[in-house]
Write a structure and sequence with these properties.
CATH class of the largest domain: Alpha Beta
Radius of gyration: 27 Å
CATH architecture of the largest domain: 3-Layer(aba) Sandwich
CATH topology of the largest domain: Rossmann fold
Structural class: alpha/beta
Strand order of the largest sheet: 3-2-4-5-1-6-7-8-9
Number of helices: 17
Largest sheet: 9 strands, mixed
Order of helices and strands: HHHHHHHHHEHEHHHEHEHEHEHEEE
Number of domains: 2
């Protein structure tokens, strides 16, 4: 198409040859090149085939040299009659691997230009289609550009061989990190053991009746990720204002009762603690949007512009509007709308590549049961919420229903669904005066 339009395709044959040649003459540079380039960034097919072969050999710890690479190309079915002479020519014209990363940068730059051109053509075609609303087309255009920024494409079939290599890389990274969990820690060690943390692209629902602490535990997680792990956290609050949320964060960080903060009745020691907490919180990259009319598309658009995003928190799902909707709902249409929203939330988590923690309201179904602990079926206006979520955590406090209970501060985080396998109950302490939760100390937490 580009040739027909008289446009020159952006690529550099010399840079591609220099990269592949350097990998052949000096295998020690292979790890550095693989960190910088992907196979689909090569324009010339033969260069791409050689690169993919070296990639696979490196992933499985095989010796890399011209002879073994040619043999593996035969095994992989990509060997051509001119391969031997082509590789010999590469070895001849590549005297050193010293500048390989500069050549790799040129290959990467040209690939980005090609993808940008493809995206521009697709967006242009989208604009002139008669069907579809402008808002939906803008959303599609933003998604394409965001995918380019993240160094990936939207959709498309990928050979399982490439996926296997990526999985091995992720496993090696997890092993090298020394962490017991692959995801971000929540701040609750027992919960992390069960869910393996907050993992990339996961939708984690925190569900409960009003007063159970849905917002509180979500903020606990946000505070831990933002303050302790120094990750960027985006919080979307459809119920509370920025000031109310920040007050809760300060109460937890300073360990000062929320009531004291609201009334300003603090002693000298508390003022010092509050000042220290405010300074620490100000240094954390936690961002809050309290617009009550937000849609998932609005959130997604904002998150795409946040560099180094680590976690998204939404409070809460049933207050959210679907795109273009108003507030008048029949039960049936509202159920469908909430189902659409939950599906879009899962897509957002997958697209952004970060965990999304979303609070969700439970129906009153548990009120009529003797055992009022939440069930998956209690998800209010559930529709397909439980299908879209990767993890569902139901909150329960016996002290809320039974004033005579032995331990009114004992809370249960019940993992009702977990795509990674384990379900069960984690016991936490409810710190009502701080509207917060804390782990219950136990002997097996000593190593954490």
């Amino acid at each position: 198409m580009d040739e027909l339009l008289g446009r020159k395709v952006p690529y550099s044959a010399q840079a591609e040859q220099a990269v592949v040649g350097a990998m052949l003459i000096d295998p020690e540079c292979v790890p550095d090149v693989l960190e910088k380039l992907k196979a689909d960034e090569f324009y010339i097919k033969l260069n791409r085939d050689i690169f993919e072969t070296i990639y696979g050999m490196f992933a499985y710890g095989q010796t890399i040299d011209p002879v073994t690479v040619l043999d593996q190309m035969r095994v992989r079915g990509v060997y051509q009659d001119n391969c031997e002479s082509y590789i010999a020519e590469l070895m001849r014209v590549t005297p050193t691997a010293a500048n390989v990363l500069e050549y790799a940068e040129i290959v990467r730059d040209r690939a980005l230009l090609r993808r940008l051109g493809e995206a521009a053509d697709e967006i242009n075609a989208l604009v002139y289609e008669e069907a579809g609303e402008a808002e939906a087309k803008l959303e599609a255009a933003e998604r394409k550009i965001y995918a380019l920024r993240q160094g990936r494409t939207v959709g498309g079939l990928v050979p399982v061989s490439q996926v296997v290599q990526r999985v091995f890389e992720e496993m090696n990274e997890a092993s090298a990190s020394g962490s017991r969990i692959p995801g971000l820690p929540t701040g609750f060690a027992d919960l992390d053991r069960m869910t393996l943390g907050l993992n990339e692209s996961e939708l984690i629902l925190v569900a409960g009746r009003p007063g159970m602490g849905k917002t509180s535990i979500a903020l606990n997680m946000a505070l831990h990720v933002g303050l302790r792990l120094r990750k960027t956290v985006a919080i979307f609050s459809l119920e509370m204002s920025r000031e109310q949320l920040t007050m809760r964060l300060l109460s937890r960080a300073a360990l000062i009762p929320l009531q004291n903060l609201l009334t300003g009745q603090l002693d000298e020691r508390q003022w010092r603690s509050l000042s220290d907490a405010a300074q620490s919180l100000s240094m954390a990259d936690i961002r809050i949007d309290d617009n009550p009319t937000l849609t998932v598309s609005d959130m997604n658009a904002q998150c795409r512009r946040v560099p180094q995003l680590g976690l998204v928190v939404v409070d809460y799902l049933q207050l959210m509007q679907s795109a273009g909707s108003g507030h008048s709902w029949s039960n049936e249409s509202r159920t469908q709308a909430v189902s659409d929203i939950s599906r879009m939330m899962k897509i957002m988590a997958k697209e952004l590549g970060v965990p999304v923690v979303c609070a969700s309201q439970l129906s009153r179904a548990n009120e009529g049961r003797q055992d009022k602990r939440p069930l998956l079926s209690d998800l209010r206006e559930s529709g397909s919420i439980e299908q879209d979520a990767d993890v569902v955590i139901g909150l329960y406090r016996d002290g809320y229903y039974n004033k005579e209970t032995e331990n009114p501060n004992l809370s249960e985080a019940i993992v009702l669904k977990n795509r990674k396998g384990m379900t069960g109950t984690v016991k936490l302490n409810w710190l009502g005066e701080y509207t917060s939760f804390a782990s219950i100390d136990s002997r097996h937490e000593d190593g954490d």
